[in-house]
């Protein structure tokens, strides 16, 4: 008798590729330049997401391949902020009627900026882009070693709703092992500042599968995180990526990621958290404090609504991506210091007309738009609503993607007649299931990409 092989999505490690966005930026290529005025002309501009990228950090962590450079010269930071201002003006002139329903500052580490620089950034976002951070859900990323009481006060004064802080691990030796030496006292001081400030949403990032980490030490980190009662936790499986510090030096040990994932998931579900995706957990509201929450000055129910499936994103800064329905664009991308510095230098030298065009990215045809929609839905517990999909594309998702039925048979997805949703198995295999839906074109572009 011939033994049947398990489906590839169920075979071996689930950790194949994080589908943070589809298509991945390694599928972006140079495009004939197109003015942004034209790119956005037929887009609904009523509820856009404004994202600003700050590509600076105190150190280059050994696991990180984000677009960021460590310890830049102070002049470079000032020039970058000037270029960012020019970029904002150029984009605003190209899409003067755009309205933003959500705002985020990410990186890198935005809190690498001084209080005065952050204050100026918020001021300019308001005057140039017309975005009042207290009127729309606003989020900012920070790291323990760059956070101060003055910066926290500034965020409070601007009505920032969500602050996300990268912790990675509460065990000092683990952060040393992953090339991010971090004092426990610094971590606790930053978290106390944030917890005392009572932002509506405090998010902590943790990584599992770090060198030297065990399932027990991972559980310890998760428990330490819970002491600060964060509204959100992002738990990232470690990916060792080419050209990063870990990618160059790491000798592979046992892969504990799946055991860590299951331990943390079960622990969080038992401790008042719900799971929104493989990485994201959110604290369930306490019914007794619900009325207090909804009457707070940061009540978001009255704020404009952004929907990632239908509404576009405008990115400012090199490293930021922008999304319309049919075009995703950004500046070039690199991992190594030399490549990153040269992309930043190129950004600083641009004239307004060059900042108001798309010249590097990916054009999404109808098929790619469907794939993106699918991937943005079925890897989240909310799932894919077939009526909304049909309204957008005029077809049934299971006709477009027969694999949905196969995945339901395999126990990765469920379908209740209205909605496709991931099961517990589907969630833990998200990083294997997601790449399965990539188009041939995207796979090929990603395979051909040479990291710099
Ligand atoms: C922009 S950073 C967060 C803010 C800040 N720069 C910091 O590090 O504290 C984004 C997050 O992505 C996660 N991350 C980055 N590279 C990763 C990798 N190779 N594997 C797993 N998680 C990673 C880390 O948890 C990190 O906190
Ligand atoms: S993890 Fe954060 S601090 Fe470390 S290099 Fe990446 S963006 Fe910078």
Describe it:
This protein is of the alpha/beta class. It folds into 2 domains: 34-294, TIM Barrel, CATH 3.20.20; 365-448, Arc Repressor Mutant, subunit A. The chain contains 19 helices and 18 strands. The strands form 4 sheets. Strands 10-11-9-8-7-6-5-2-12 form a 9-stranded mixed sheet. Helix 2 (74-94) runs parallel beside helix 3 (115-129) and helix 7 (215-226) packs parallel to helix 9 (257-270). The chain is globular, with a radius of gyration of 22 Å. Mean pLDDT is 93; it is low at 291-298. S-adenosylmethionine binds at residues 57, 63-64, 66, 106-107, 109, 141, 143, 166, 168, 205, 207, 236, 238-239, 241. S-adenosylmethionine is lined by residues 57, 63-64, 66, 106-107, 109, 141, 143, 166, 168, 205, 207, 236, 238-239, 241.
């Amino acid at each position: 008798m011939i033994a049947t092989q398990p489906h590839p999505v169920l075979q071996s490690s689930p950790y194949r590729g994080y589908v943070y966005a589809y298509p991945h930026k390694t599928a972006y290529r140079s495009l004939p330049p197109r003015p942004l005025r034209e790119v956005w002309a037929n887009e609904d501009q009523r509820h856009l997401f404004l994202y600003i990228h700050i590509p600076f950090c105190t150190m280059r962590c050994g696991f990180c391949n984000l677009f960021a450079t460590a310890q830049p010269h102070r002049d470079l930071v000032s020039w970058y902020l000037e270029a960012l201002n020019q970029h904002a003006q150029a984009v605003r002139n190209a899409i003067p009627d755009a309205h933003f329903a959500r705002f985020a500052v990410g990186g890198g580490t935005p809190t690498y900026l001084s209080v005065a620089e952050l204050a100026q950034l918020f001021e300019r976002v308001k005057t140039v882009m017309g975005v009042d951070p207290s009127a729309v859900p606003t989020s900012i990323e920070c790291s323990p070693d760059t956070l101060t009481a003055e910066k926290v006060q500034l965020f409070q004064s601007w009505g920032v709703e969500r602050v996300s802080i990268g912790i990675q691990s509460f065990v000092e030796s683990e952060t040393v092992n992953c090339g991010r030496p971090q004092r426990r006292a610094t971590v606790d001081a930053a978290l106390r500042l944030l917890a005392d400030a009572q932002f509506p949403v405090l998010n902590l990032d943790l990584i599992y599968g770090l060198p030297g980490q065990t399932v027990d030490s991972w559980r310890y980190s998760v428990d330490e995180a819970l002491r600060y009662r964060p509204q959100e936790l992002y738990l990232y499986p470690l990916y060792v990526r080419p050209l990063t510090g870990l990618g160059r030096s790491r000798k592979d040990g046992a892969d504990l990621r799946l055991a860590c994932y299951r331990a943390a998931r079960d622990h969080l579900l038992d401790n008042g958290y719900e799971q929104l995706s493989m990485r994201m957990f959110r604290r369930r509201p306490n019914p007794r404090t619900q009325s207090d929450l909804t009457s707070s000055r940061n009540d978001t129910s009255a704020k404009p609504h952004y929907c990632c499936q239908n509404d576009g994103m405008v990115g400012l800064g090199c490293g930021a991506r922008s999304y319309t329905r049919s075009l995703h664009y950004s500046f070039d991308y690199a991992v190594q210091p030399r490549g990153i510095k040269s992309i930043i230098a190129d950004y600083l030298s641009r004239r307004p007309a060059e900042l108001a065009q798309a010249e590097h990215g990916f054009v999404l045809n109808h098929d790619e738009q469907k794939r993106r929609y699918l991937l943005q839905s079925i890897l989240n517990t909310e799932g894919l609503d077939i009526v909304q999909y049909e309204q957008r594309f005029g077809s049934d998702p299971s006709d477009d993607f027969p694999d949905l039925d196969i995945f339901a048979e395999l126990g990765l997805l469920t379908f209740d007649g209205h909605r496709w949703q991931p099961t517990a198995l589907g969630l833990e295999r998200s990083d294997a299931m997601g790449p399965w839906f990539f188009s041939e074109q995207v796979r090929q572009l990603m395979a051909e990409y040479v990291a710099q």
